[in-house]
From TrEMBL:
It comes from the Bacteria. InterPro entries: Acyl_CoA_acyltransferase, GNAT_dom. Residues 48-196 form the N-acetyltransferase domain. This is GNAT family N-acetyltransferase. It comes from Sphingomonas hominis.
Length: 216
């Protein structure tokens, strides 16, 4: 009986925390990761059964898996805004994607603005179906994106990684990315969102190591 009561209390606490974060206040902290052409460690190879496509026109978007399908309209808007979509497909349906901005990127919803110089690319919206991640889809997509950007003549690419997102942080480090000393903090308060940028020296790393200690 005591175990059941504790379990019920834990569930209600989790629900209250989620409701607070969804409707009242939450914050997150990210770092900007960059990779210059001479740092890239893309390698070769891919996971069996995967194919890839690069899209610049909404009419050329591939079929989307059920997990990505709700974003179809947003993807079409990205194409019309001049963004480049990189998709990884299994059995003819996209199971993951990443998007590139090749000119100044302004996200009005997140209140973010990233200025790009010639030869730079900003990558964002990395999404891989959860069932595909242990099958190598995320690594394969990252490797494909690096090859595409190198073929485009991109000298520097960068993106924003949440410090709680261990998988994405480690994948980017694996391929040669480094922190470039820019911290991004997102704040949500009663459905309003704003972003603050600051600089730092050294490496912030992940919020927590495997043992749960803060990484610095």
């Amino acid at each position: 009986m005591v175990r059941i009561e504790r379990s019920a209390v834990a569930k209600w606490r989790a629900r209250l925390r989620k409701a607070w974060g969804d409707h009242v206040y939450r914050s997150s902290e990210s770092v900007v990761m960059e990779c210059r052409r001479e740092w890239i460690r893309a390698g070769v190879g891919t996971a069996p059964g995967l194919s890839f496509v690069t899209v610049t026109d909404a009419a050329d978007l591939p079929p989307l898996c059920a997990w990505l399908a709700p974003r179809a309209a947003a993807f079409a808007d990205m194409c019309r805004a001049g963004k480049v979509g990189l998709f990884v497909l299994r059995d003819g349906a996209a199971v993951g994607c990443a998007w590139l901005a090749l000119s100044d990127h302004h996200d009005r919803g997140a209140r973010e603005f990233y200025r790009l110089a010639p030869g730079e690319a900003y990558h964002y919206c990395w999404l891989v179906e959860p069932a595909e991640r242990p099958r190598g889809g995320a690594l394969a997509l990252a490797r494909y994106a690096l090859h595409v950007m190198r073929d485009m003549g991109i000298e520097r690419q960068f993106g924003v990684i949440d410090r709680d997102n261990r998988a994405s942080y480690q994948i980017q480090r694996h391929f040669g990315y480094r922190e470039c000393g820019v911290r991004v903090r997102h704040f949500h308060f009663f459905h309003r969102r704003w972003t603050r940028f600051s600089t730092y020296t050294g490496t912030l790393g992940l919020h927590h190591t495997v043992t749960g200690q803060r990484a610095r």
